[in-house]
Amino acid sequence: MLQLQFIRENKEAVLQGLQKKNFKELNLVDEIIALDEQKRKTQTEAERNKSELNVMAKEIGNLMKRGLQEEAEAMKQKSGASRDAQKAMEDKLEELEKSLYENLVKLPNMPHASVPFGKTPEENENIYQEGEIPALFEGALPHWEITSKYDIIDFEMGNKVTGAGFPFYKGKGARLQRALINFFLDEALKAGYNEVQPPIVINKESGFGTGQLPDKEGQMYYVGIDDLYLIPTAEVPITNMYRDVILKEEQMPTKNVGYTPCFRREAGSYGAHVRGLNRLHQFDKVEIVQIAKPEDSYATLDTMVEHVKGLLQKLGLPFRILRLCGGDMSFNSALTFDFEVYSAAQQKWLEVSSVSNFEAFQTNRLKCRYKNAEGKNVLAHSLNGSALALPRIVAALLENYQTPEGVILPKVLQSYCGFELIN
RNA sequence: GGAGAGUUGUCCGAGUGGUUUAAGGAGCACGCUUGGAAAGCGUGUAUGCUAGUAAUGGUAUCGAGAGUUCGAAUCUCUCACUCUCCGCCA
Question: I need a surface site. Which of A225, A298, A337, A377 has the fewest CB within 10 A?
Fold first, then answer.
């Protein structure tokens, strides 16, 4: 959620930003400004009246104490009449606040100045590429055939027990998952992150805090009996640790890493591009989350990008980094870098990480602030990134490292797995 | 799941309708005192919105929400959470 004061004072910049983000309802900005003006006027009025009522109530108390019943009664009458007016003003104020909020949460975040113009993924800016694209042998297979050839991931079993998109990982497949999680967590620990194991179901307040609700309600699994949601990413519980929190300056930045399964309904997607591990309803991910001072957040974003880069280098996977264009960025983000690995048998790039700075967009809703050196409370900036999401990494590892004799794992994973070859 | 007791500021804790402007204590900050420190003394010490250049003021917040009342931390209702006991249980 953008800050009202910012919108009020930077209307032109806001309009330009929204256009870059390919946001259509530009009239909302004027509406918000008008509502805000009305709201403040009403609030001033209501509070002045309330102040008078408070004085009268106190006076009645004094009169009663001194035994002046009649005077007290007279004032009660007067006060009672004013109370109805008060109620009306407060109702109006509440109404205005509600529609102001409803409009405000519809506005996406402002894109950072470096965000390129564009509407589609094709217009994302390729800013970095590294690693050799392997030339595969004759008869090389896509990962969904490798997994069944070596019986390491069982999609049919998942279909039977749960449904599509919930595979079983078996034998070396399960061990590879565990190895990757440990590897990613260990690397994050080395980079100074604090490991947390958050809950994987969250309440409504947390869903609102990080912006999944109300917009993406249909994308989350909902546990109706207890009014809870399965998390789509560890970002939600980990960032919400800081909801309604005022951090001390020396606590900044907070650096947390967590491994969780993630659940996404992915309503509406189907077909070849979601085949195998490309898109699942349940998948594993290690997520890094930082809360930073506003002046440091872009430097922080760079360190997170470097961290993810390091992971892919160690795994020896060819990858590229995209700076997302305005139209392809998420609602919440001010600047996002996507990481894609090349999947040799499918001959396409697969997104494995998304690293973003949300600036104060999430923290404004979360009310996550920090007390700066001058003792002022200011909204912190929140950032997060996948480091990394497992399924597509597994897909790329299986495809890129396959040989006629089996899949030879990269060195860094061999000790984590306890084996070198999947056959 | 059942029964009971709770939830007050940074912390402890008083407070069953009106000088509560939330007592008192601790902590923390600053000042005085001191050779220096401790003790002592003094002052300050929440958050949001809002008015104002500011100083400062208004308003709301005692787990959350609604209600009763001229007036609610205090009374009523709903909900959440914590603790104790019982039941169940990895």
Answer: A225
